[in-house]
Amino acid sequence: MVFAESLICRECSRTYELAPAYFCEWCFGPLDVLYDYEAVAESISREKIAKGPPTLWRYADLLPVEASAATDLGAGFTPLVRADRLAEVLGLGEVWVKNDTLNPTNSFKDRPVTVAVTKAIEFGIKTVACASTGNLANAVAAHAARAGLDSYVFVPHDIERSKIVATAALGRVVAVQGNYDDVNRLCVQLTEEYPWGIVNVNLRPYYAEGSKTLAFETAEQLGWELPDHVVVPVASGALLTKIAKGFDELVQVGLVDSAEVRISGAQAEGCSPVATAFEEGSDDVRPQKPDTIAKSLAIGDPADGYYALREVRRSGGAIAAVTEDEIVEAIHLLARTEGILTEPAGGVTVATLAKMARDGRVTDSERVVIYITGHGLKALEVIATDDPVPIPATVDGFRAEFEKEE
Amino acid sequence: MPATIRIPTSLQGLTEGSSEVEVPAGQVGAAIDDLITRYPDLGERLLGEDGKPRRFVNIFVAEDDIRFLDGLETTVTDGQVVTILPAMAGG
């Protein structure tokens, strides 16, 4: 049973039928999926969800596609682990890490893509595509392969090599001269030329819904309680906006009582249009030319930046930006304290948490959840070290090398 | 040789089906004004009450977003293409 009824403009509330469409023809505002929440509330329950599959499809009542026809590689329901060792270093109390590196293609992008590809098939679309900084590329190529669809993934030419290699094995990569915002513009133009489903362009309303499931899982894994504060990496701003929507929907359908979650955002200084607007107290997210090792967050003209800013301010959160050195240091901090290896986006998130802890914008009385959205093996360049010098395969050889350390 | 403004499909109903409209070279703002003079219904769709492009409308000269150039004062030369696109994509 699908409870999605129509698309609605986030700005002027004009409604449209469910179709491959992404902006309001009147005001160009973004389109969102509108559900019959009363019907969802009658259908959904904590017990029903608990009996569902160990994937994001356990929340099918709040997704805009027919779950029984899902193109499913097992996205979602990733571990939420308590991070006491990290919390201690940062001087915080209760910190949890949502380890979304453990998705089928090792980033959170499998969530929106499993929804978007399923919707593409519903619409009779034969070819899917995306504009990507790399993680989305992996996810689209994999899900398209699984569904037997043709795919084109468009990426900036200078993203991490492992993301290009992995995607090329799964599907077709088109490397583009320029940055992500150039790739994105190209894809918008291609939408008018080809009968494709470009997951983050003309399938964007459905695609973005997949990211809400991070909020649903957070609540369920905390025993149907909400955290006090979450820290979310910000690229386009869609993830943060959808996590906020997810918490609100849980209240709306009666799964939790109230959603007073402070929502904070994390950016790299080398690409910080939303953090800059936040610090300036402005609503105007001015585009930037990105220059950061956090390539998966390198969106200089974030489509949902304005809305991410609004959610952060509404909820009493903050958005901060961190330096390249802080990002690398934070990757190592998370690795050495919690055994979780993240790509630079996660370094940005951990470094932002650390910075906000120092500034008192996160406190030790709060239950905090941070979202680690991509695996470190996808971006080894930034943590590469010299190869270790081999020791002789003898006990003495080991002692000679390592007893020096003591 | 004039410049060209490329109209997105969703707005072609307001330009009598034209996907491209020729305008005199000069500044982007003047080119858009010229377009709106010819097709007045486009005015409130493209520009806000402050006369600036609406939040969700992006304008490019050749491949460059005018927000990285001089905004509506960006120069458009003969033969160049101005593209109007919805902003709400990506990520």
Topology, pairings included?
The complex is a heterodimer of chains A (406) and B (91).
Chain A: E1 4-9, E2 15-16, E3 31-35, H1 37-43, H2 46-50, E4 80-82, H3 84-90, E5 94-99, H4 110-122, E6 127-131, H5 135-147, E7 150-156, H6 161-170, E8 173-176, H7 180-191, E9 197-198, H8 204-209, H9 213-221, E10 229-233, H10 238-252, E11 262-268, H11 273-280, H12 305-315, E12 319-322, H13 324-338, H14 344-358, E13 367-372, H15 395-402
Parallel strand pairs in A: 5-13, 6-7, 6-9, 7-8, 10-11, 10-13, 11-12
Antiparallel strand pairs in A: 1-2, 1-3, 4-5
Helix pairs in contact in A: 4-5, 5-6, 9-10, 10-12, 11-12, 13-14
Chain B: E1 3-6, E2 20-23, E3 26-27, H1 28-38, H2 43-46, E4 57-61, E5 64-65, E6 75-76, E7 81-86
Parallel strand pairs in B: 1-7
Antiparallel strand pairs in B: 1-2, 3-6, 4-5, 4-7
Notes on the protein architecture:
The complex is a heterodimer of chains A (406) and B (91). Chain A has 406 residues and is of the alpha/beta class. Chain A has a domain at 80-106 and 209-383: Rossmann fold (3-Layer(aba) Sandwich), CATH 3.40.50. Chain A has helices at 37-43, 46-50, 84-90, 110-122, 135-147, 161-170, 180-191, 204-209, 213-221, 238-252, 273-280, 305-315, 324-338, 344-358, 395-402, and strands spanning 4-9, 15-16, 31-35, 80-82, 94-99, 127-131, 150-156, 173-176, 197-198, 229-233, 262-268, 319-322, 367-372. In chain A, the strands form three sheets. In chain A, strands 4-5-13-10-11-12 form a six-stranded mixed sheet, with helices on both faces. A four-stranded parallel sheet of chain A has the order 8-7-6-9, sandwiched between helices. In chain A, helix 5 links the parallel strand 6 and strand 7. In chain A, helix 5 (135-147) runs parallel beside helix 6 (161-170), helix 11 (273-280) packs across helix 12 (305-315) and helix 13 packs across helix 14. With 91 residues, chain B is α+β, with helices and mostly antiparallel strands. Chain B has a single domain (3-86), classed as Beta-grasp domain (Ubiquitin-like (UB roll)). Chain B contains two helices and seven strands, in the order βββααββββ. Chain B has helices at 28-38, 43-46, and strands spanning 3-6, 20-23, 26-27, 57-61, 64-65, 75-76, 81-86. Chain B has a five-stranded mixed sheet with strand order 2-1-7-4-5, with helices on one face. Chain B has a two-stranded antiparallel ribbon with strand order 3-6. The interface between A and B is medium-sized, with 40 and 22 residues.
